[in-house]
Amino acid sequence: MENDIRIKAPFDKKTAASLRAGDFVKITGTIYTARDAAHKRMIETLDRGEKLPFDLRGQIIYYMGPSPAREGRPIGSAGPTTATRMDKYAPRLLDLGQAAMIGKGKRSKEVMDAVKRNQAVYFAAIGGAGALLSKCIRASEVIAYDDLGTEAIRKLTVEDFPCIVVADCEGGNLYETAVKEYCREEM
User: Fold this and answer.
1) pLDDT digit string, tens, across residues 86-139
2) Model confidence pLDDT, tens digit, residues 139-168
3) Which of helix, strand or coil describes residue 146?
4) Given the DSSP bridges, would you call strands 153-167 and 121-124 parallel, antiparallel or unpaired?
5) Strand 5-9 to 24-33 pairing
6) 131: closest CA among 58, 67, 48, 179?
7) What is the annotated signal peptide range for this record (predicted)?
8) H helix runs in the chain, sequence order
9) How many other β-carbons are positioned within 10 Å of the β-carbon of residue 82?
10) Residue 40: how many CB atoms within 10 A of its CB?
11) For the CA atoms of 142, 119, 175, 66, what is the dihedral angle to 10 degrees?
């Protein structure tokens, strides 16, 4: 869409503060993938007092487990995973400087509080559109936990990766406002 907001990843709190729930965004730059098993391992790493495999500050983590790459492509289908599966890990990572998450579906109150507290953002990617989303991924490299297969942490280079801001740093929540707006329209 021509009114999309274009942002560079990683990004800072100033960029996060400029985004509002409902904004359409296209992300260009570096993002990381991690799902359940990788999140669990990151928390165990932190619990042991060790460093994570990448610096979280300003980073976006995409909750995705890619399919194998087809010939000539850096990655296969790359659709979002249901975000609630990372809810028990997300607040701690946000408190350590993670700037944003990309997934699908609602989040817990604890995650929403952590988004607001840390001036972060929760983006949604369109579920079921993994093949289309993969066309925005220019490079993919496993950087940690290779033994986890599709759940390994990957560093992705993306260009114009489309997302919608679901939760913003002011406490805006598209899932709540959209339902209220829809119900008001129905009357």
Assistant:
1) 999 999 999 999 999 999 999 999 999 999 999 999 999 987 788 889 999 999
2) 999 999 999 998 999 999 999 999 999 999
3) helix
4) antiparallel
5) parallel
6) 67
7) none
8) 13-18, 36-47, 90-95, 109-117, 130-134, 174-186
9) 14
10) 16
11) 0
The residue extents of the domains of the chain are: 5-186
Would you state the structure tokens that stand for residue 69, as one six-digit string? 């790459």
Give the torsion sign (CA, 22, 2, 81, 149): negative
CA atoms within 13 A on the CB side of 142: 14
Cα separation, 170 vs 172, whole angstroms: 6
- Residue 114's φ and ψ, nearest 5 degrees, are -70, -35
* 62 closest CA partner among 11, 114, 125, 111: 125
Confidence of residue 180 (pLDDT cuts 50, 70, 90): low
Fold of 5-186: fumarase (3.20.130)
Q: Annotated active-site positions, please?
A: 39
Return the SS3 of 154.
strand
Give the pTM.
0.92
User: Which helix H or strand E contains 121, and what residues bound it?
Assistant: strand 121-124
| pLDDT surpassing 80 at residue 181 | no
Tokens representing residue 146 in the block: 């290779």
Tokens, residue 170: 């002011």
